[in-house]
Amino acid sequence: MDVAATPVARPGLEPLVSGISAVVARGLDLRHTAYAAAGVLRERLPGPGLLTPEERAGRPDTYASHLLHAEEGFSIVGVVWRPGQVTVIHDHVSWCAFGVLSGIEHETLYGDMGDHLRELGRTGNRPGEVSGFAPPGDIHKVVNTSSEVGVSVHVYGTDLRRLGSSVRRVYDLPVR
Fold first, then answer.
1. Closest CA to 136 of 39, 30, 55
2. How far apart are CA 156 and CA 70, in angstroms?
3. Domain 13-170, CATH homologous superfamily name and number
4. Contact at 8 Å (CB) between 38 and 132?
5. Beta strands across the sheet bearing 74-81
6. Is beta strand 105-112 parallel, antiparallel or unpaired with respect to 139-144?
7. What's this model's pTM, rounded to 2 decimal places?
8. Matching Gene3D superfamilies, A to Z (predicted)?
9. Looking at residue 28, what DSSP letter applies?
10. What would the pLDDT profile of 114-169 be if each residue is shown by its tens digit?
């Protein structure tokens, strides 16, 4: 995860931080926190200027995550996906809310059946769309299926300065 060495002006970040801080302070359970954070993100979804042009370019080999804000109860990350870039199948250590700024984040959801995974559903998240989820039941993979660079904002219910990643587990079970 990239962390800027010098502070960068982040248009739209401060209203998002203050809104998410207020949600976290309410002390809701994981699922309700995720939904409330998604509501704040929906109302305050920043524009692509949240990331610098260099950050928005992405990486040729894998999607790029840029830590934009972190504190004890949550972190905000800008994720950049070049066309076709994909995550491994994984789940998370905490709740998450995300909003798509560009591209199409195609998500496949899975259920853990013990010795294999079962596909539960698929969705294509387009620019302006926002969603939230919480463990358990958050096993998924994501791919940018558009022909343009995808950018999204992810809010995780943990301090990524401490953990380094929001991923709890990577799944290599067969999919049936």
1. 30
2. 9
3. Jelly Rolls (2.60.120.10)
4. yes
5. 64-71, 74-81, 150-156, 96-102, 130-133
6. antiparallel
7. 0.91
8. Jelly Rolls
9. -
10. 999 999 999 999 999 999 999 988 999 999 999 999 999 999 999 998 887 888 89
